[in-house]
Amino acid sequence: MQAWRVYENGEPDAVMRREEVKPPVPGEGQVLLKVRAANVNFPDALLCRGHYQVRPPLPFTPGVEICAETEDGRRVIATTALPHGGFADHALADAAGLLPAPEALDDAEAAALHIGYQTGWFGLHRRAALKEGETLLVHAAAGGVGSAAVQLGKAAGATVIGVVGGPEKAAVARDLGCDLVIDRRSEDVVAAVKEATGGRGADVIYDPVGGDAYRQSAKCVAFEGRIVVVGFASGTVPTPALNHALVKNYSVLGLHWGLYAAKDPASIGRCHEVLTAYAAKGLIKPLVAERVPFAGAADAVRRVADGTTTGRLVVLPEGAEA
After folding, report:
1. Helix and strand element counts for the chain (H, E)
2. Are the beta carbons of 178 and 153 closer than 8 angstroms?
3. Under a CB-based contact definition with an 8 Å cutoff, are residues 200 and 222 in contact?
């Protein structure tokens, strides 16, 4: 079968190598899946660089999120069991973690549903308890993670403010349904949020960026607001001033979605049922900006890592229709 493999850590387009290899052999509790579509996530780049919290043995195949087909013909979504990831004709996954692919979504959309939308749902609802009528601020609102949070915020009845970088991404955020879009390159984010909220600030802030985005968040979060820390796409991990959280009465909430698989696995299935119902009603639909031919997988991972993309890039196996 065809697979992209990493033999040494480095930048994705430098270390990902396309090869002909034997299909992986499932271990105990695992299943072999035929990949129908593999979503590109920022952690795929971190895996290539050796900077992710999980470091699979070399060589490995990246691609942590897939829509796939089981040996008995079921269409499923899964997170892959590294080192046998999704940028390949076949991948491995834990049998207990398989979820039915929503009928309302095609393969590429289904591949982009699992991690981003689960993270968004747990972050907004389980961690931040977002309420109807509250104001939600989403950083990187036109990206893969941010676009999911925008749609989930609208589905919850929140007023959604999206922060983006550049006019092209601003247009994408508006199309997603943001009530207000702020271009951080040409506008003062803090001033714009305060003006839009009558000085109150945002009740919930969803931050997959870190760095300057977090500092802006702390300045424009509302009384008893909640900042949900999802990741650090900027490359800079902020160091919150806890005295500031004390005097403004706001909460800083961490979210590592992967922990729920170990601590509360049943909650993932319940969340998937909600997301499937949302998809059937048209409340959510992953923004697949590009369906990438298999040969372009390494370049796609690099572009996602560079932050130049909008929505999701999904890699299709050789011979699949785009």
Report:
1. 12, 15
2. no
3. yes
DSSP string, 237-282: -----HHHHHHHT-EEEE--TTHHHHH-HHHHHHHHHHHHHHHHHT
Sign of CA pseudo-dihedral 179, 253, 82, 58: positive
3-state secondary structure of 302: helix
What sign does the CA torsion over 195, 209, 304, 35 have?
Answer: negative
Cis peptide leading into 12, omega within 30 of 0? Answer: no
**CB contact burial 179-214 (16+ within 10 A = b; e otherwise):** bbbbbbeeeebbebbbebbeeebbbbbbbbbbbebb
Q: Where are the alpha helices (DSSP H) in the chain?
A: 12-15, 42-49, 107-111, 114-121, 144-155, 167-176, 189-196, 212-220, 242-248, 259-263, 265-281, 297-306
- The pLDDT tens digits of the residues spanning 127-179 come to 999 999 999 999 999 999 999 999 999 999 999 999 999 999 999 999 999 99
Tell me which H or E stretch contains 98: none
Q: Please report, for residues 89, 110, 174, 248, the alpha-carbon distance to residue 288 in angstroms, rounded to integers and kept in the order given.
A: 20, 10, 16, 39
Mean pLDDT of 76-92: 97
